[in-house]
Design a protein that fits this description.
Layout lengths: L3 E8 L8 E8 L2 E6 L8 E4 L4 E4 L1 E3 L20 E6 L13 H12 L10 H8 L6 E7 H9 L8 H16 L4 E5 L10 H14 L2 E5 L7 H15 L2 E4 L12 H14 L4 E5 L4 E5 L12 H9 L2 H14 L7 E6 L12 H8 L3 H11 L4 E6 L3 H9 L3 E3 L13 H16 L5 H6 L3 H6 L16 E4 L20 E6 L2 E5 L1 H9 L1
C-alpha cells in the first residue's frame, strides 16, 4: 500500500479545533502524522494548497442497508466514507421464516425486490464488511425485530415474545450492531407500548450502545414525542439519539423551540441525548406514513383489504385528513411502481386530485391501491428559520436520511454534505466550516461509538477527504436531484483512493 502525503492544505481535524496549515501522512491504511514533519522520500505527494483536508465524512443516518453492499458511488462522491444504517426501525435482519413479511415492511425504503435478508447481525455485518466504498455500522431495527417474531401483529405482545426480542437484540449488539432504532410512525412499531420500548432500551444501555428513534410524531405531537423519548432515556440510562429532528407543518413550527429546550435541559442535567437533522426543508418517506398506522395491521395486504371495504376506507380517509400537518399542496409524489402512473412523479397531491376530480385524500388512497402500497413522497415540512436553528445547534449531527426510489429521489441522496459545507456554511454563514466538519466526522463517530474514524489523528483509519472550500456545493435540487456535487477532490477510505481527480487517481490505482 502506498505511503501518501497530503501536502500544504488547511487541516480541519474533525474535533472542532481551529483549522491549521500542515500536512497529513498516511501509510498502510492508517494516519501516521498530522502537522509539520519530514515526508518520506518514497511517498506519493498530493498537492493540497488552497484545499481543505478533513476526515472522511460519516453519514450517521441512512437507509442504504442494501445499496452499501453494491459499492454504489453516490455517497463517496460527497466525501462519505462511513455510514450508519438500520435506522427508523428498518434493518435487513433478523429475517422471519417468511421473508415476504420483512420485504413488504421495508422495501419502500430499501428499494429492492431481490430475496434479501440475513438471520443475524453478524451475518449482515460480515457481508457489509466487504464494501469497498463506505465502512458500515448497523442499528437493529425494532420493526424488523418485531416482524421476525410476530409478523404484522399490532399492540402489546406476550411475555415470551418480549423475552425473545430482548434476547435477540442483546445477541445482535454482542455481534457488533452499534445500537437499536425505532420507527414509531411506521406499523408495526407505532403500536408498541412504552413498556416494550423500555425493556429493549435497557438492553441497549446494558451494552453501552445507542438508541436512535424516529419518534411518534414531529408535528402536532412533537413535544409529547420528545417527552416520551427523554423519559425512556431517564428510566433506562441509554444514550438517546433523536432522528431527523424537525417541526412539521406551519401550525407546529413554534413547537421546535419548546422541544429543543426540553432536550437542552435534559442534556444539562446529565442525560446523554443528541439529535440529527438534514440540511433541507423537505423530507421524504413512504406515502402510507400519512395513514393511521392501525390500517396497516396485516401489512400491505391488510391495508388493501381495508381500502376495498367502503366503511373502513371512509374511516381511514377521515383520520388521514384530520391528522395532515403539511397541507396537500406540500406533498409531492417521488416514486411509483407502475409505468401507467409515472407521469405523476413530481406533482403535488393537490394537483393530482384536481386533475382526477376528487378530494386529495381520495387521490392518496387510490394511488396506494393502484400501486399496491409502493408509493414514496416528498414533503415540504420545515421553515428555513427552524432548519437553521437545528443545523447550527450544538447538540446536532448532520445526516442525509437518504434512500433510493423508483423515480425521483430526494436530492439529499446526492448532495447533503457538499450542500452543508457550501450553501449552509460558506454562503449563508449558518455555521463555521470547522463546526460543519465536526458535525459530520468526530461527533457522529462518538454518538455511535464508531472506533478510529472521524478524526485526523495518528492511529486512526486513513479516511481522508480533500475538498475545495471555495467551490464545494451541491447543484442537486428537488426537480433535478441526480447531479454530482462540486468541489470534492479526493476521497480515501482506509488509505485507498475511492474517488480522486486526474493523474493522482491513476497513480494511486496503479500502485
Amino acid at each position: 500500500m502506498t505511503t501518501i502525503v497530503f501536502k500544504g492544505g488547511t487541516v480541519i481535524n474533525g474535533t472542532g479545533a481551529p483549522p491549521s496549515s500542515g500536512d497529513v501522512l498516511i501509510s498502510e491504511g492508517t494516519i501516521e502524522s498530522v502537522g509539520v514533519f519530514e515526508a518520506p522520500v518514497d511517498a506519493l505527494v498530493i498537492d493540497c494548497h488552497g484545499l481543505a483536508v478533513a476526515p472522511g465524512f460519516i453519514d450517521s443516518h441512512s437507509h442504504l442497508d442494501l445499496q452499501v453492499l453494491e459499492n454504489r458511488r453516490e455517497k463517496v462522491a460527497q466525501g462519505v466514507t462511513a455510514e450508519v444504517v438500520g435506522n427508523c426501525g428498518f434493518s435487513p435482519y433478523p429475517v422471519p421464516p417468511n421473508r415476504e413479511l420483512i420485504h413488504d415492511f421495508a422495501n419502500g425504503l430499501f428499494c429492492d425486490d431481490t430475496d434479501w435478508g440475513w438471520p443475524t447481525a453478524r451475518a449482515y455485518l460480515e457481508r457489509a464488511a466487504r464494501s469497498t466504498t463506505t465502512a458500515v455500522s448497523s442499528l437493529v431495527g425494532h420493526g424488523s425485530l418485531r416482524i421476525a417474531r410476530v409478523g404484522n401483529q399490532l399492540g402489546q405482545l406476550a411475555e415470551r415474545d418480549l423475552d425473545w426480542m430482548e434476547q435477540t437484540l442483546s445477541e445482535s449488539l454482542e455481534e457488533g450492531a452499534c445500537g437499536f432504532s425505532t420507527g414509531l410512525m411506521y406499523s408495526p412499531g407505532a403500536s408498541a407500548p412504552f413498556a416494550e420500548l423500555e425493556r429493549l432500551c435497557r438492553v441497549v444501555a446494558r451494552h453501552g450502545k445507542t438508541y436512535a428513534t424516529h419518534m411518534r410524531g414531529y408535528g402536532d405531537l412533537l413535544v409529547e414525542a420528545v417527552d416520551e423519548q427523554l423519559q425512556l432515556a431517564r428510566r433506562t440510562g441509554c444514550r438517546l439519539q433523536i432522528s431527523h429532528f424537525q417541526a412539521v407543518g406551519p401550525r407546529n413550527w413554534n413547537k421546535q423551540q419548546v422541544a429543543l429546550e426540553k432536550i437542552e435541559n435534559a442534556a444539562a442535567k446529565g442525560l446523554d441525548v443528541g439529535f440529527d437533522c438534514y440540511p433541507y426543508v423537505a423530507g421524504s418517506t413512504v406515502l402510507t406514513q400519512l395513514l393511521p398506522q392501525w390500517a396497516l395491521e396485516g401489512g400491505i395486504n391488510g391495508l388493501l383489504a381495508r381500502l376495498a371495504d367502503g366503511a373502513e376506507r371512509k374511516r381511514i380517509a377521515a383520520e388521514t385528513d384530520a391528522s395532515l400537518e403539511q397541507g396537500w399542496m406540500n406533498i409531492l409524489i417521488s416514486s411509483l411502481e407502475t409505468p401507467f402512473n409515472r407521469g405523476l412523479i413530481g406533482q403535488t397531491i393537490a394537483a393530482i386530485a384536481a386533475s382526477r376530480g376528487c378530494e386529495p385524500v381520495e387521490a392518496v388512497l387510490d394511488l396506494i391501491q393502484e400501486e399496491q402500497g409502493r408509493v414514496n413522497m416528498l414533503e415540504m415540512n420545515q421553515s428555513e428559520a427552524n432548519l437553521r436553528q437545528a443545523l447550527s445547534h450544538p447538540l446536532s449531527c448532520i445526516i442525509s436520511d437518504g434512500f433510493y426510489v423508483t423515480g425521483r429521489p430526494h436530492p439529499r441522496l446526492y448532495g447533503t454534505f457538499p450542500l452543508l459545507l457550501g450553501e449552509m456554511s460558506r454562503e449563508l454563514g449558518w455555521l463555521t466550516l470547522t463546526a460543519a466538519v465536526h458535525k459530520i466526522t468526530e461527533k457522529p463517530a462518538r454518538r455511535f461509538s464508531i472506533p478510529k474514524r472521524g478524526r485526523l489523528e495518528p492511529g486512526y483509519f486513513a479516511d481522508v477527504v480533500v475538498f475545495d472550500p471555495g467551490t464545494v456545493n451541491s447543484p442537486a435540487s428537488y426537480e433535478t436531484p441526480l447531479l454530482r456535487p462540486k468541489g470534492i477532490c479526493h476521497v480515501f477510505r482506509n488509505g485507498v483512493a475511492v474517488l480522486s481527480d486526474g493523474v493522482v487517481g491513476s497513480l494511486i490505482a496503479s500502485s
